Amino acid sequence: MKTLIKTCVVALGLATLGSNVAPAQSPGDAQGDVVLRNTITGEAMTLKDGKPGGRDTQAVKTFLKTGQNIYIDDRSCLRNGESLFLTSCSGCHGHLAEGKVGPGLNDNYWTYPLNTSDVGLFSTIWGGANGMMGPHNEDVNPDEILQIIAWVRHLYTGPVKDAAWLNDAQKKNYHPFKEGETFAKNEPGQCKPLEN
Ligand code: HEC
Q1: Shortest-distance Cα residue to atom 14 of ligand 1
Q2: Ligand 1 nearest-atom number relative to CA 91
């Protein structure tokens, strides 16, 4: 029995390996190891279409390889993320993501639990969900989405134990969002001030 299981595991492993070797995508859309799936249909999505730019930054490359968003807690990116969120999202989700016609994004209730991972949240923003939550890939490019995600995570006010997107060090450092914080134009960090 044990050997049978072992054989199956090996066979499965080989099958997965096989599918990695045969490229499903042309080299031009190579995306690393993370598969982005539409939140509603589960279909795999590429970053080929949508707003140009913001695809070859270190943050996007790291994200597509590991699923980690290196802009989390970076104040220069939070500054940009706030501004992008206010332009593209707050009209429906509220100024502080407290919810309006769209659901609150600052608490621990998620219609789609996959949004507790940054890959899930990225996919929802890129490809949309139901009804008024259309795809936002024409408004914001991949790098900008990572900045928005950093801001949405920063706005969180729920219990830290449910913040699945934080690693242990980030959980230790967690302070629920309080209104009134301001960011300087020259905030140090990885994100240059937005143009315009
Ligand atoms: C035109 C209004 C509108 C805009 C603009 C909008 N949303 Fe939404 N959003 C909605 C609605 C309505 C839903 C609920 C859809 C559903 O349940 O499928 C939703 C759902 C979501 C969800 C799923 C929440 C959950 O509980 O799982 C996320 C995440 C989200 N929006 C993020 C964003 C972000 C980030 C932006 C800006 C880039 C944005 N939305 C812009 C209306 C909007």
Answers
A1: 102
A2: 5
pLDDT digits (tens, 9 = 90+) for 27-84: 434 567 999 999 999 999 999 999 999 999 999 999 999 999 999 999 999 999 999 9
Q: How far apart are CA 102 and CA 184, in angstroms?
A: 29
Give domain status of residue 196, yes or no: no
- Containing structural domain, residue 119: 69-173
Q: Annotated binding residue at 92? A: yes
Q: Are strands 44-45 and 36-37 parallel, antiparallel or unpaired?
A: antiparallel
Q: Are 43 and 73 in contact (CB under 8 A)?
A: no
Is 89 annotated as contributing to ligand binding? Answer: yes
Distance in angstroms (rounded) separating the CA atoms of residues 43 and 24:
14
Question: Quick check: is 132 in a domain?
Answer: yes
